[in-house]
Amino acid sequence: MNGNFYKIVVFFLFVLCAGCAGQISQLQRGANILDDTWKVANDNLNKTLGTREYKISKKEAFNAMVITLTELGFIIENQDYETGFILAKGHAPAPLTNSEGEAVKEIEEPKLRALLAPEIGEFSANCFFIGLNYYDNIVNVHMLERPKDLQISLRSLYQYKGDTTWIHSQHGPPTALEHSIKKIWNTFEKTAFIQEGTFK
Questions:
Q1: Which of 182, 180, 158 is nearest to 171 (CA)?
Q2: Is residue 183 part of a domain?
Q3: Which structural domain, as residue segments, surrounds residue 105?
Q4: What whole-number distance in Å separates Cα of residue 133 and Cα of residue 3?
Q5: Over pLDDT 90: what percentage of the chain?
Q6: Is residue 189 in a domain?
Q7: What pLDDT, on the 0 to 100 scale, is given for residue 132?
Q8: How many domains does the chain have?
Q9: Which residues contact 139 (CB under 8 A, 6 or more apart)?
Q10: Please, are residues 152 and 54 in contact by the beta-carbon 8 Å criterion?
């Protein structure tokens, strides 16, 4: 498996489906359904999991987050301590390992096919699988100093980087996003504790 792994995408199998305009139309409709479904779920995950409050200095937190993202395979593309902003990009499976990505695939592929089968038919649904390449994981971090704590907001999204002539979903599966967000927080907290940060 490509170590670049996954900002997860949904592809259709050209070998099985080429030459059939009706089939391609169904596949595109399936990709649109997945986009809508996964976007709603991922937006909700970012809202529910993406913000935490800590009793730690902004300097400690900022340094710990930069270290965390770098260790998890991201490249820091922009950072501004004054505004508390960090922008990082990682090739999938960052921040997950290849084995963690495979576990996501095993969970999500049956779910996506079950979602699509009633809408586009079982044959077309089985043409979809979770790709392990062609995506970047974009992470935005914002830090806000408040009188009693530091609020950190983290937002993650998948950005398709593959061949746009393929039918694909612009959004990654929710299981991948959930595991990614949790892993970033867990690693950040361990890193900050090493720096003697004190958490609420």
A1: 158
A2: yes
A3: 9-194
A4: 9
A5: 57
A6: yes
A7: 59
A8: 1
A9: 69, 74, 86, 87, 88, 89, 90, 154, 155, 156, 184
A10: yes
β-pairing verdict for 85-91 and 75-80: antiparallel
Q: Give the chain's residues under pLDDT 50.
A: 1-19, 197-198, 200
Residue with tokens 């987050």: 65
- CA-nearest of 64, 31, 30, 71 to 143 is 64
Q: Is residue 177 part of a domain?
A: yes
Give domain status of residue 179, yes or no. yes
The pLDDT of residue 22 is 58
The token duo for 120 is 């586009």
CATH number at residue 34: 3.30.530.50
Assigned token pair, 171:
């959004």
Q: Count the neighbouring beta carbons within 10 Å of the beta carbon of residue 114.
A: 11
Structure tokens that stand for 186 in this block? 């867990």
In the block, which residue shows the tokens 């490249």? 75
Q: What is the rounded end-to-end Cα distance, in angstroms, of the chain?
A: 40
148 — phi, psi (to 5°)? -115, -10
